[in-house]
Amino acid sequence: MKLLITGASGLYGSKLAELATARNYKVYSGYSRDQPAYGAPIQFDVSDKNQVEEAFKKANPEVVVHAAALTDVDKCEINKELAWKINVEGTRNIAEAVKTSRAFLIYISTDYVFNGETGRYRETDRPDPINYYGLTKLKAEELVKDLIGEYCVARGSVIYGSTPAAGKVNFALWVLNKLKRNEQAKIVTDQWNSPTLNTNLAYMTLEIIESKLTGTFHLSGATRINRYDFAKQIAKTFNLDATLISPSTSAEFSWTAKRPRDSSLNTTKAQQTLKSKPLQIKQAVKRMKQELTQLPKVAQPDRVET
Question: What's the pLDDT at 168?
Fold first, then answer.
């Protein structure tokens, strides 16, 4: 199986490349800046149509997982032109190349396509993004559906994992690092998501590839939880001082972009369809702890994805 992954140096893409390589896939790892740790690296800019076409000629993929995106929510709000160029035009370039090569496309999307007014969103619920990042991801979803006959749109939520990726530390690692240094951490209680362990998402993706499942799937974690309780769960699992975590509200932070209040995802479809099930938060954080015990100690970057 020849698999091309865009964003293969990122948190999710790098894990997918690692697991696919272990299954003897021929993995081509697309990246723009940070060279991936797994797979045959191909450097290209998804927003450059010619570079995308050249990458497809090199890889000649049977399956493409398009995970590359500008995911910094505030940066997307500030630099809308760049966000559109990468997230929408980049996806158009990938989708057109997929159509020409007759590959199978899995597009990695987000819970931020929803407005957050109700939560526990199903795949059939109407998207209504409240920030520019969510808008670009929704427009990209629509492009994929318009351009390609057979596709899968896979939505995740607050992806986290045991290792930093592309120079950024994810929310769970940021909390963990704070607690290990006995530092206070102010965490919001009024943002609800379905935190997604990258390993869990990668295994579900591999099953979609191997079963060639089409349509839209919510491949997030199975637990609806707010950021504060998520941080508390991390403290509990790692036997760290939970009193260092203090509750706060979104109003106390000066974010440029609005965040949905409750963008949690309903994973019933994935639970019923897949053998690799979305994990409950306790299982997932325990899995993350197991992964960390197997890793060599490395310096952690300070940038955190929110």
Answer: 83
Domain of residue 261 covers 2-293
**CA of residue 41 relative to chain centroid, distance:** 20
Query: pLDDT tens-digit profile of 235-252?
Result: 999 999 999 999 999 999
Instruction: Please give the tally of structural domains in the chain.
Output: 1
Helix pair angle (227-237, 171-180), 10° resolution = 50
Residues 143 and 100: beta-carbon distance below 8 Å: no
- φ/ψ bin of 43: left (φ > 0), alpha (ψ from -120 to 50), beta (otherwise): beta
Q: Give residue 52's pLDDT.
A: 98
Q: What percent of the chain has pLDDT over 90?
A: 93
Structure tokens at 160: 């986290």
What are the φ and ψ backbone dihedral angles of 144, each rounded to 5 degrees? -60, -45
Residue 304 lies in a domain: no
CATH number at residue 134: 3.40.50.720
**Residue 225 β-bridge partners:** 193
Return the residue matching tokens 């260092």. Answer: 244
How do residues 276-293 score in pLDDT, each as one tens digit? Answer: 999 999 999 999 999 999
Q: Are 66 and 40 in contact (CB under 8 A)?
A: no
75-92: average pLDDT: 98
